[in-house]
Amino acid sequence: MHIGLDVRTLERRFGEQFLTTPKMWIMRERMSFAPTLLAEGLSNKQVAASLSYTCESNFCRDFKRDFGRAPQKFARIHGGGSDYVAFR
């Protein structure tokens, strides 16, 4: 799809509207689904694939940064964490 804007203009307008970068918005969206997937009993590898990560370790790193714990430890502590939402 072509919208007639260069990348920098799109990034600037996105930032004005959503007060974040497109990359950070996508990351928050991905992470918002992670606790529910973990609560369903999916492994880190399955959650990473479901969230379109190409590498499980990148998912684990991002999850730990946002939630303060490794995904499986978080799931054990929060009973899966299906209703837990937290962002930096």
What can you tell me about this protein's structure?
With 88 residues, this protein is mainly α. The protein has a single domain (7-77), classed as Orthogonal Bundle (Arc Repressor Mutant, subunit A), CATH 1.10.10. Helices cover 64% and strands 0% of the residues. It has helices at 7-18, 22-39, 44-50, 56-67, 71-77. Helix 2 (22-39) crosses helix 5 (71-77) and helix 3 (44-50) packs across helix 4 (56-67). The mean pLDDT is 87.
| CATH domain topology | Arc Repressor Mutant, subunit A
Specify the structural class. mainly alpha
Helix tally equals 5
Q: Average pLDDT, to the nearest integer?
A: 87
Share of helix among residues?
A: 55-70%
How would you sum up the global shape? elongated
Beta-sheet strand percentage? under 5%
Give a short overview.
By secondary structure, this protein is mostly helical.
Could you outline the blueprint of secondary structure elements for this entry?
Blueprint (H helix, E strand, L loop, with lengths): L6 H12 L3 H18 L4 H7 L5 H12 L3 H7 L11
Output the keywords:
Arc Repressor Mutant, subunit A; 64% helix
